[in-house]
Design goal:
This protein has about 160 residues and is α+β, with helices and mostly antiparallel strands. It folds into two domains: about 90 residues; about 55 residues, bsu07140 like domains (CRO Repressor, 2-Layer Sandwich), CATH 3.30.240. The termini are far apart.
Length: about 160
């Protein structure tokens, strides 16, 4: 029974840590981040099972993590108000072509990372962006303006109009 309680404590700890660390997806992890998460997994295993290498201990720990994940998922479905608390909320990082500096600082999102995400979606300049939203899963959604830009994406000048 002690393994069950340890697994619950570690699950909650990991949930808090991943919420605090930020919103990056697996595809965006650096090599160091990946190694860090693998090492953290081993440390968690040791903390949960107290070096109990039995099949039963491992199955109990994995079962508690799986059950807690299912319970969190169910609770979000049953009580929709919990969803922002469990998964986080989408945050606007660019509005009308202007950076929302406070949101960028809070999310520790650099201009370099924002521009890289924009370029991946074919956006050259931030003034093309009507709205950019940092989603709860770490992706950035861009909504662009199409009515006030030329064919190359550059803003039209008064002379060219």
């Amino acid at each position: 029974m002690e393994i069950v309680f340890r697994a619950l404590v570690m699950f909650l700890f990991l949930w808090i840590v991943t919420r605090a660390v930020g919103r990056s997806t697996l595809g965006e992890l650096s090599t160091f981040d990946l190694v860090l998460y693998v090492a953290m997994g081993d440390l968690i295993q040791q903390a949960v099972t107290q070096q109990d290498y039995s099949v039963t201990g491992g199955m109990l720990a994995i079962g508690v993590f799986a059950l807690t994940t299912v319970l969190l998922s169910w609770s979000q479905w049953r009580f929709p108000r919990l969803q922002p608390f469990v998964n986080g909320r989408a945050i606007v990082v660019v509005r009308d072509g202007e950076l929302v500096e406070k949101a960028l600082r809070q999310q520790r999102l650099s201009l370099t990372d924002l521009m890289a995400a924009a370029r991946q979606q074919g956006i050259r300049w931030l003034d093309q962006v009507d709205l950019a939203v940092l989603e709860a899963d770490g992706r950035i959604s861009f909504f662009t303006r199409t009515d006030d830009h030329g064919s190359d994406g550059a803003p039209e000048t008064a002379e060219a109009a």
